[in-house]
């Protein structure tokens, strides 16, 4: 995978699809990487220039050894667009990818034609959720993914999807540096009061049975976006419907992007 450099970090990305078509940047969820969008990009690549990237701590980018927040990650995304000399794009962000995509849209609103948000929210987590992530951070530091991998698979992907490849990848994530992505997740700020500033056309997807971010948070997010075009409930899906239920995500996503990125 090619890389771009920002503030001393080397971040990996892919750039596929039709270079003459509108650009779409896909930002993955916690513990995932850009390949989680492969089945979505397969049906979008003829119509769009499709860019994925591996955020700090994950995928080919790998661990980082300095603190960061999702505003830093939003600047990473903007840096990738600058590196590729892309003046405007659409955003697709899943879970933490949605956290940073919304922040990128707040930092440079004129740069983004449309935004798709999947299984994400604008607010912060309740204290018991933060406590559980702090426990995850401690457990991972002491033992790696082993003791928590199966619970994470259920929480982040679901039980009815073959996630063996993802679980294997988690076992290879080093213990050192894992605390920084967790702290970015638990320490994020609440941007609910700023949603009115995200004025580009928006679509929100949420799994009906999401155990990580309840669908009511998705509905609240959708209600706060001033230019929402559609809220899509993905029936029987958990936290990663774009990965586990692409047959219900791809068509409305494609239709939305075709309509609002031309």
Automatic annotation (TrEMBL):
The keyword Hydrolase applies. InterPro entries: AB_hydrolase_1, AB_hydrolase_fold, AB_hydrolase_sf. Transmembrane segments: none annotated. Pfam families: Abhydrolase_6. Gene3D superfamilies: alpha/beta hydrolase. It comes from the Bacteria. One of its GO terms (molecular function) is hydrolase activity. The keyword Hydrolase applies. Keywords: Hydrolase. Residues 24-250 form the AB hydrolase-1 domain. Coiled coil: none annotated. This is Alpha/beta fold hydrolase. It comes from Paraburkholderia elongata.
């Amino acid at each position: 995978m090619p890389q771009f450099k920002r503030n001393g970090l080397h971040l990996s990305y892919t750039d596929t699809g039709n270079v003459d078509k509108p650009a779409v940047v896909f930002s993955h969820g916690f513990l995932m990487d850009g390949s989680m969008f492969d089945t979505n990009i397969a049906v979008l690549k003829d119509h769009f220039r499709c860019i994925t990237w591996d955020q700090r701590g994950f995928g080919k980018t790998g661990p980082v050894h300095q603190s960061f927040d999702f505003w830093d990650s939003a600047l990473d995304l903007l840096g990738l667009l600058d590196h590729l000399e892309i003046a405007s794009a659409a955003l697709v962000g899943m879970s933490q990818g949605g956290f940073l995509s919304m922040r990128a849209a707040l930092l440079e609103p004129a740069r983004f034609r449309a935004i798709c948000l999947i299984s994400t929210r604008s607010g912060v987590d309740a204290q018991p959720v933060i406590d559980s992530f702090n426990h995850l951070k401690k457990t991972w530091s002491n033992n790696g993914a082993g003791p928590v991998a199966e619970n994470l698979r259920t929480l982040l992907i679901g039980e009815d999807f073959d996630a063996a490849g993802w679980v294997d990848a988690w076992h290879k994530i080093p213990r050192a540096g894992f605390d920084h992505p967790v702290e970015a997740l638990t320490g994020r700020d609440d941007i609910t009061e700023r949603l009115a500033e995200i004025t580009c056309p928006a679509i929100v997807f949420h799994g009906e049975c999401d155990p990580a971010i309840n669908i009511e948070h998705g509905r609240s997010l959708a209600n706060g976006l001033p230019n929402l075009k559609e809220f899509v409930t993905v029936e029987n899906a958990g936290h990663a419907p774009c990965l586990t239920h692409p047959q219900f995500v791809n068509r409305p996503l494609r239709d939305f992007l075709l309509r609002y990125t031309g």
